[in-house]
Specification:
single chain, alpha/beta, UDP-N-acetylmuramoyl-L-alanine:D-glutamate ligase, nine-stranded mixed β-sheet, binds adenosine-5'-diphosphate, binds ligand LCLJCK34, thiamine biosynthesis, hydroxymethylpyrimidine kinase activity, Hydroxymethylpyrimidine/phosphomethylpyrimidine kinase, PM/HMP-P_kinase-1
């Protein structure tokens, strides 16, 4: 008998199947983890944008989290769109398990997925108990309140002061390379750069990266190696989706490919 790593995603749904819970569960499965989930919000979303957003009450999210934690040996928690400060408090109540926080605030289409109250809750209650946070530049600017031109290192340091290790992601489809700035718990900084995959089928990239990172951390991998492997997973996923013709907007990042040893 074996027990797989159990990864719990606390996130919103994306009806288009690219981002949010769909991306998290598909990534967990691709990397050999059993995925459990607590839905925070339902979105009517496709490759062109986000339509309706229906947040769930915190009590409903708490009930899902309690059901999972009461039964399964969860080895890592990964959060995405939280939807309200009350749901942020549910996340803050989880202890004794590594928590990877992807602070989803805005979709690529520009849709707001996190209010100012949610931003305040990240700063005040979620980040002090988190293991690692994986914001993109826009999310880091919003969470810190710093000038949008602030260098990556300063943004990472400002988030690190709130508690967690930081992986400030630098995905840019127009640049030759993407650079992710990693600030470990100790404060050590490393910039991990890799080639950009040219594709407009990249919807869900951030969720996929954080979910892959969560699996590797849940398996006990050190942060730098885990980031390196999560980058490799995302690059392989984007390479697959780059050949797709799917949807009228930014198509989904692929989750249907077999990871090689490097991405695993
Ligand atoms: N076109 C790309 N090619 C290769 N890696 C990418 C590409 N876009 C993003 N990434 C990587 O995916 C991860 C998530 O990055 P990012 O796009 O910044 O997140 P988000 O979707 O939240 O904005 C990072 O490791 C980043 O380097
Ligand atoms: C329900 C939901 N959660 C998260 C996101 C944002 O996903 P992300 O991986 O950052 O991808 P992009 O939307 O930036 O491509 C979402 N859109 N919906």
């Amino acid at each position: 008998m074996t027990t797989p790593l159990v990864a719990l995603s606390i996130a919103g749904t994306d009806s288009g199947g690219a981002a949010g819970l769909a991306a998290d569960l598909a990534t967990f499965a691709a990397l050999g983890a059993h995925g459990a989930c607590a839905v925070t919000a339902v979105t009517a979303q496709d490759t062109t944008g986000v339509g309706r957003i229906v947040p769930l009450a915190a009590a409903d999210v708490q009930a899902q989290v309690d059901a999972v934690l009461g039964d399964l040996p969860v080895g890592v928690v990964k959060t995405g769109m939280l939807g309200s400060d009350e749901v942020a408090a549910v996340v803050a109540g989880i202890s004794g398990i590594p928590v990877v926080v992807d602070p989803v605030l805005t979709a690529t289409s520009g849709a707001q997925l996190g209010s100012d109250e949610v931003v305040a809750a990240y700063r005040e209650v979620v980040l002090p108990g988190a293991t690692v946070i994986t914001p993109n530049r826009d999310e880091a600017v919003r969470l810190t309140g710093l000038d949008p031109r602030t260098p990556a290192l300063e943004l990472a340091a400002a988030l690190h002061e709130l508690g967690p290790a930081v992986v400030l992601t630098g995905g840019d489809p127009r640049a030759a390379t993407c650079g992710d700035t990693v600030m470990e718990g100790s404060g050590a900084v490393t910039v991990l750069e890799h080639d950009t995959i040219r594709t407009c089928n990249d919807h869900g990239t951030g969720c996929t990266f954080s979910a892959a990172l969560a699996v590797h951390l849940g398996n006990g991998t050190d942060l730098l190696t885990a980031v390196h492997r999560a980058q490799a997973f995302v690059s392989a996923a984007l390479t697959t989706s780059s050949t797709w013709e799917l949807g009228r907007g930014r198509g989904p990042v692929a989750h249907i490919f077999v990871p090689t040893t490097q991405e695993n």
